[in-house]
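BUG: 3D viewer hangs when loading the predicted structure for this chain

Environment: internal workstation, default settings.
Expected: structure renders.
Actual: progress bar stalls at 90%.

Input used:
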Amino acid sequence: MKTTIRAKWTRIAPASLCLAGIGLGTWISFRLGQGFAFTGFLFLVVVVLAALYGGFAQATVVSIGAAASLNYFFVPPIFSFVNSPANWVALGAFEFTALVISRLSLRAQAQAGQAVSGRRAVERLYETARRILLLGSAADLGSRISELVGEICELDGTKLLDAFSATVFSTGVSPARAEQQLWDAYLLDADRFDPETRSWYCVVRFGMRPVGALALHNTAMDKLEATALASLCGIALERRRTIERESQAQSGRQVEQLRTAVLDALAHQFKTPLAIVRTASSGLLAIGGLGELQTDLITSIDEQARKLEHLASRLLTTARLERTEMRPRCLPASFAKIVDLALRELDNPSERGRFRISGNGLEAPVFADRELLATSLFQLVNNALQYSEPDSPIDIVVTTEAGRVVLKIVSKGIVVSPDECRNIFERFYRAPEAHQIAGGTGLGLSIVKKIVEAHHGSVWAEGRSGYGTSFSISLPHAPAA
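Structure tokens produced before the viewer hung:
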């Protein structure tokens, strides 16, 4: 009861005090013998105060009281309410003043309220950003962000949709169909406000790309603040995903380093016993005096040991290529000389006659480590021999194209599909078409790719329907000097 009376008194206090001021001013002016002009100006000040603190309605009441007091005490004949032009002019002046001052007062109060609201919004955004950054990359980051936004903005409830994982994180109380409206906002890429539940549904963006949606329930915040909160959430979610990707990349690098170290160690461990086996088998064959069966067995042992030694050499090459400290020693060289080095490595010299070498780029210089690049070419020509039709010609064509030198090896044989052409340069991968033709480890083409990329070049394969598969290497053209 006392609270109600106090609230009513607070509302009518400006008019009551101003009417009391009108009475006091009338008594003072009348006792001092002041005229209409002085008293009218005094009353105008009181009307301004009434309009400023009580509004137009209370100022109107004070204006009527002031005009009546002027008419009764200061407009002849005094002590009577005889209407006169001066009385109406005074009343009009009071009312006009009350209207202008009350409107200016309301506008100032509205601007002050907006300034206070804007300052509070900035403070909330700053606090939200600060506390989100302190969260780091917590596993339950989505739930923590939703809780922080609801706590700082004093909301009934919040929902955060992470579109990357299709997960909705909720806190507090949410209206019916809130989750459906959250998904609608994300799928339609449009912010919307529900006046019935006083809820914002904003798209969470990172840059211009939608990455989720944010629901804010029972809030009076404007669109600018709501979308700013959604942007903060988008940055936080993207930051978490970036940290996760960096962690996965780091783990992958560590696995690669460990695998390379294991390959290196295994290859070195194999080399010594294989050398002893080959020495022993070659020695037995050189001594002679063996039976036909014994000779065949020793020859088989020697051949398989040679293959194992070749595989160990490949493993060592792969490990060396994947060390970060490996750098090719590049000097100007022509593909003609490098191709010649590769063909000399063939076990059967008679196979060299199957290769037809041509093109206008054979003498074009490229920067290359001859031994490394010859190793990659040897792998390609050896593959061409293994997977091509027996005794069919193999073309090696070297051309220059737009500042690059391109070597292409074309053989007639199996046709690798476009999808497989993208995968055959991966380590230990073999195309299904190759399994029935010849044995292999899947290391050769990965070594080729590593060597070519170390020379800032590129390598690719193309299947030609009804004929075979070609392999190409492209390297930058070295200056003629």
